[in-house]
């Protein structure tokens, strides 16, 4: 099944967690945080010259003889900003690459289904680059390319929209601590979700013996004799790395879901993203 | 218990061990993997660099399993066997009984004693290469066997040991060991017979080749003095007679040379001894000689009236045979010239010449057939010319010697203890008396009478030779070297062996001497010790340890299982690493 098909299938069951938070944005079908022209009554206030007389509470005037304005919730169209890590590690293994593309497609598809305005960014030559909106709208995202130069995600370059839902699709295999990325991605008024694709080979590698290990991004080489003990140490380090990310992300109120590259996207989202709150059931 | 390898060449499998070591040292190119999580890998010992290059040896379970497997398989190829001592082993030692071995009676038999390690107990048998000799030692004390070897008298000529070895192999029934001991490495022994040679080349000089001749009525003894070495030797010798010794004589002998010595017997001494300085081979350092006297025989001649009593040919023949004519009735042999067969039985042995009444009978041809008999061995009577002979009826106990057509013309007729010699040929009417075969036949017959008659004689005989002496029915004693020994009489004879050491001995019945003899060494082949050498063809005692079948099978099964376990473990570890 192609990435788009997988994404559509997953988008039919799941959606991005847009209902969880009060959204803001242009006029749309989502209940915004401000006052708007939806039918949901929110509050009263005194009339001020210039207010729209359609919202005068005539019943309150009849009772009080004073002009009072009715306030309704703002109906907005949420903004979704998606950042796709295009570093070499994301595309090292075919499964992981496919899952990355599927996640992007899912996010796009889910955003569009929900009537949101998605914007997707990727990196090229270490710089953030907006992806083609028409291609995103048409669902053509197969041309996602590896940024061979990217090693650290340049999140500070991303023009996040105010109060947007921020989706970050990255394997988080950075040597740096989470602080920089969290600082530039997570705010109080934004909802941030991390989709972290991973493979079995990087989680539980089968390396043994004398190996020449080459880092896919830095191209640094290391001659390493891998024994069982060393492999166990690596797995401990792997576990600790993502535990630190979990803790850092959670402490800032964001959501992090590690999505395995094995199996279908729908299964992966059901098993890992839904429990983590990175997706909701579509209704 | 002892562990041994029945196939040591199987250990060439150990050559695989250095190959395995080299394979592990010259390792394959390391596997290259592009990873995304290198920063999470702890940096410890690094692997080798590129290519199949030399690296310091790195111990690993795979390596040691492969080494262990190679060791086990090599060990298995060597056919390990657990050997246990037999409870009892039979070892039969067959001695070369020839005279040359007497020069090595003090040689060490230590090589033989090593055999005892193959069994808890060793049953030793020592026999001589002459099967007719009794067992020299039987027991489990090797020192007693060595004593028996040292004390054995080696006097005879060399005899093939094969009959004795066959007997020994039959006695062991294929379970024990047969070892032939000689003074030189033997040739053409059976493959399952081991050997031990205890000889070494030695210089020897000695007396040999004694003869006695008559020269104008005087007895002359002749002896050879021989040098059996490759170097010139100076020999000093003298003659002992009657307790006194002559002056010393010197002889310089070139390598391999012999010098003839001769002399007469002193007038008052019938015995002399030639003596030289002793050397390593002592049997030929003394040569006793006794003036020989043949046993006296007397003959009486009876002739018929029709025959002539003058027979010069008979006188010559009897004279040459040292038979004295007598008129007395106690002759040892009676010679008849008669036309009819004698009928009385009180004669001693008879020689009968049947005369023909018709002295004008013509000569007649006829095929002559000679019977096989000790008296007629290698004789030829084809030249015999006789007239037609009247056929004599043979009895069941007669032994024909010569036929002319179907007529027995020479035959033996048994008469009690005697066998009479009959000639159905008239000596006057034939050429019988001119035939050499007739003379030889008659001499042989006379000698057979001499041998069976009790009487005194003196003779020279070889060491250890078998003698059969007719004796009267009385106690017979052998005297030799100041010692006496009673001999057993059987059917009127005593059988004895001449002494094993050079010297004089006597056989007498009561006070009557029957035989006085000198025993001397005469086999020159045995006196030559230049070809003697030491050596051994003994099989390692380990080969004779018993293999207990069950123990070896269990051990081999365990080795196979361990080897397979090592292989499987090594493969499993390799496969695990590959994954």
Overall mean pLDDT of chain A: 81
Q: Write the element-wise H/E pattern of chain A from the N-terminal end onward.
A: HEEHEHEEHEHEHEEHEHE
What does the radius of gyration of chain B come to? 41 Å
Percent strand of chain B equals: 25-35%
Radius of gyration of chain A: 23 Å
How many helices of chain A? 8
How far the N terminus sits from the C terminus of chain B, by CA atoms, comes to 48 Å
Q: Which shape of chain A, going by the Cα principal axes?
A: elongated
Largest interface: A-B, 33 and 25 residues
How many individual helices of chain B?
A: 9
Secondary structural class of chain B: alpha+beta
Separation, N- and C-terminal Cα atoms of chain A: 24 Å
What does this molecule look like?
The complex is a heterodimer of chains A (283) and B (579). Chain A is α/β, with parallel strands linked by helices and 283 residues long. Chain A is 32% helix and 31% strand. Chain A is built from 8 helices and 11 strands. In chain A, strands 2, 3, 4, 5, 6, 7 and 10 form a 7-stranded mixed β-sheet that branches. A two-stranded antiparallel sheet of chain A has the order 1-11. A two-stranded antiparallel ribbon of chain A has the order 8-9. Chain A is elongated. The two termini of chain A are 24 Å apart. Chain B is α+β, with helices and mostly antiparallel strands. Chain B is built from 9 helices and 35 strands. Classes of the chains: A alpha/beta (283), B alpha+beta (579). Chains A and B meet through strand 8, strand 9 and helix 7 of A and strand 2 of B. Strand 8 of chain A pairs parallel with strand 2 (31-35) of chain B.
